[in-house]
From TrEMBL, chain A:
Transmembrane segments: 47-65, 130-148, 154-178, 185-204, 242-265
Domain of life where this protein originates: Bacteria
Family: Belongs to the ABC-2 integral membrane protein family.
This protein's record includes keyword Lipid metabolism: no
Signal peptide (UniProt feature, chain positions): none
Compartments, as annotated in UniProt: Cell membrane; Membrane
Protein name: Transport permease protein
Record's keyword terms, sorted: Antibiotic resistance, Cell membrane, Membrane, Transmembrane, Transmembrane helix, Transport
Topology of this chain in the membrane: Multi-pass membrane protein
Pfam family, one: ABC2_membrane
InterPro entries given in the database record: ABC2_TM, ABC2_TM_bact-type, ABC_2_transport, Nod_factor_ABC_transporter
Domain ABC transmembrane type-2, residue spans: 40-267
Species: Plantactinospora mayteni
Amino acid sequence: MTTISAPAPVPTRRVSPLVGIRHTMTLAWRSLVQIKHNPMELLDLSIQPLMFVLLFTYVFGGAIADSPTDYLRFMLPGIMVQNALFATMTTGFGLNTDLTKGVFDRLRSLPIARWAPLAGRILADTVKQAWSIALLLGIGMVLGFRIGTGPLGVLGAFALLLAFSLAAAWISVLVGVLVSEPDKVQIFGFMVIFPLTFTSNVFVPTESMPGWLQAWVKVNPVSTLADALRGLLVSGPESGPIVTSLLWGLGIAVVFAPLAVRAVMRRV
Amino acid sequence: MSYAIRAEGLVRRFGETTALAGVDLGVRAGTVFGLLGPNGAGKTTAVRVLATLLRPDAGTATVAGYDVFRQAHQVRQVIGLTGQYASVDETLTGTENLLLIGRLLGYSRGDARARARQLLAEFHLSDAADRAAKTYSGGMRRRLDLAASLVGRPRVLFLDEPTTGLDPRSRTELWGIVRDLVGSGVTVLLTTQYLEEADQLADEIAVIDHGRVIAQGTSEELKAKVGGQALVVRPADPGDLAMVVGVLREVAGAEPELNQHTATVPVSGGDVLPAVVRRLEDADVTIAELALRGASLDEVFLSLTGHRAEDGTELAEVPA
C-alpha cells in the first residue's frame, strides 16, 4: 500500500485573504437566499417597527405633538434607531441556530477562512439592516414624513446607522454564543432594547420627563443617535451628535468584539 | 502499513469532566474503523479533535499524514464530517446546501451545481432537491448530511453516530452507502453505540468507555478475547434441568446460567463438550438441544465495561 501522506492534489497551506472574502460572500449568500424561500422573513424584520410607527403616529401622535404628522417627523428617526437595534439581534439568533444545529461545526470542518462564517453572517445581516431602514423611511414618507436635507443627508443617515449597528452586532454575537437556544437571544433583545430605547428622546421630548430620568436620557446613546439622524434627515446635520454616536459605536466595538470573538473560540 | 488516522495520548477535559483520558488510535487507510461506546464515552469528543474542531489538552494526532493541530487547514482539505453535530442548513434546499459546500471548497458555479446534482442523484434525493431540508424525513436528512460531507471527495470520512435515530430500513440503506464508499478507497472512522453496526461495518473496533480505549481489534478478536464460547444445553424433560446444571457445574467448573428450559455455561477447552455428552448419557438424560456458540458483541461489551451498551430503541423513536 502506498503512503497516504503524499496525496494529489497537494493541499494548500493557508487561506489567502482574498479567498477568505470569497468565502464570506458565499456564506452571506447562504443567509440571504433563505429570503427567496421565505419572503415573509423580510416582513418579519419590519413588522414591529411598522406597527410602532402606525400606533405611535395615530394613537399617541395627537396627544404628544400638535398632529400625528408633526409627531411622525419627530419620532421616525428615533424609531429607525430602535429598529436597527432590534435587527442586530438577528445576528446572534442566526449564530446560535448554527451553533446548536451543528451547521457551524460543518463549516469549521471545511478548509475555509476561520473568520468567514461570522463575517458572512454579519455581512448578510447588514444587507437586511439596510433593507429595513429603507422600508421604514419609505413607509414614513408615505405617511407624511418629509426629508428636510437631501440625498447626502439620507446617505449619511444610512451610513451612520449601519456603522452603529455593525458595532452593536458584537453584543448580539456575544449573547448568541453564550445562551443555550436561539429564542433566548430574542428574550435578551426585548429585555434590554425595550427599556433602553424607551428611556431616550425617541418617543417624547426629554423635558417632559422627571429630572433623574432626564440625566440618563441625555447620555443614552439611543438619544444621541436619534438626534444625529434627525439632523441628517430633517434639520441639517450636526457634528456633535454624529461624532458622539460614532464614538459610542467605537467604544461598543472595542469592548464587545474581543469578548465576542473569545466567546466564539471557547464555545466551539 | 499506512495509517490514515493516528492518535496518541489524546486528553481533553471539560471543566471537571474528562472526556478523553489518553486515547490512542490507529486506523489503516481504506478501512472502516468503529469507535464503539455508550453515550458520554468520549466518542464525539474524539471525532471533534480528529476533525480539527477541538483542541486536545494533551496528545498528538495525524490525519492523512497531516498534524491535526499544526496543519489543520490541510487536514480540512482531505476530510469529510457527518453526524450528530455536523449538520445541514434546514432553511436551504438540498441543492443549495450542496452548492454552498461546493462553492466554499472553491468549485466554480457550474462545477458546484453539477456535483450537487450528481450527489443528490446518488443519494436518491433528486426529487427533493428543491425542497427545504426541514421538510426532509430523518433518513433523507442523514443522506443529505452525508452527501454534504462528500462534496469535496474526502479521503477520510468521520461519521459520528450516523444512524442514531434512524429507522431500520434507513439504517441498512446508510450501511450500504458506507460500504460503497469504502469500496472506492475512502477511510471511514465511525462512532456508534450500536454493537450490530460496528459488527456489520467495521474492519476494526475500539471499545471506548469513560474516555479510554478499553479494547481494540476485529470483532472476531474481541469476541475471542472475552473467553469465546458458551455451551447451551436443553434437556427434553424440564425435570432433568437440575441434573444438567449439576453436570455442567462439575465439568466446566463454573456456575451455569438458567434461562427457562436451558442452562448455559462459559467454556474454554475443547474437551468439555464430549465430557458433558458422556456424563448426561450415563445419567439417562435425553438432550433436546446442545450448542456451542461464540460470544456476541453484546457480551463482549458487558464483560469489558461492566455494563450493557445503551439500548438504542429509545433513541430510535426520537425524530432526527
